[in-house]
Automatic annotation (TrEMBL):
PROSITE patterns: HIPIP, TAT. It holds the Pfam family HIPIP. InterPro entries: High_potential_FeS_prot, HIPIP_sf, TAT_signal. One of its GO terms (biological process) is aerobic electron transport chain. The chain crosses the membrane at residues 12-32. It comes from Arsukibacterium ikkense. This is High-potential iron-sulfur protein. Gene3D superfamilies: High potential iron-sulphur protein. GO terms for molecular function: 4 iron, 4 sulfur cluster binding; electron transfer activity; metal ion binding. The lineage of its organism: Bacteria, Pseudomonadati, Pseudomonadota, Gammaproteobacteria, Chromatiales. Belongs to the high-potential iron-sulfur protein (HiPIP) family. Keywords: 4Fe-4S, Electron transport, Iron, Iron-sulfur, Membrane, Metal-binding, Transmembrane, Transmembrane helix, Transport. Residues 29-97 form the High potential iron-sulfur proteins family profile domain. Homodimer. Specific class of high-redox-potential 4Fe-4S ferredoxins. Functions in anaerobic electron transport in most purple and in some other photosynthetic bacteria and in at least one genus (Paracoccus) of halophilic, denitrifying bacteria.
């Protein structure tokens, strides 16, 4: 294999890996469903879609993921599920300023 062929191979390989990874991330985000209140983990963590604790919502928790401003977002506590931005659970931790 010549250097030119090797370079081409690595460029194609890198592009393929990036494409598969990015595609997998977006597909998993689309596949996520909203967390139901009767989910066993949600019940154990006292999750609610609307926080009753002043100043504490999922949107200002350090465990929330995804883009700010979305109504439903992924959370590190509930893998594969989306939580309400206005929600709350017992694992709430104040968001660390970047």
């Amino acid at each position: 294999m010549s250097n030119l062929d090797r370079r081409t191979f690595f460029k194609i390989s890198a592009g393929t890996v990036i494409g598969i990874t990015a595609g997998g991330v977006s597909l998993s985000a689309l596949a996520a469903e909203k967390l139901k209140l009767d989910d066993p983990l949600a019940a154990a963590m006292r999750y609610t879609h609307k926080s009753e604790v002043e100043g504490q919502i999922c949107g200002n928790c350090n465990l929330i993921q995804g883009e700010d401003g979305q109504e439903w977002r992924p959370c590190a506590i509930f893998p594969g599920k989306l939580v309400a931005n206005e929600g709350w659970c017992a694992a709430w931790v104040k968001k660390i300023a970047a």
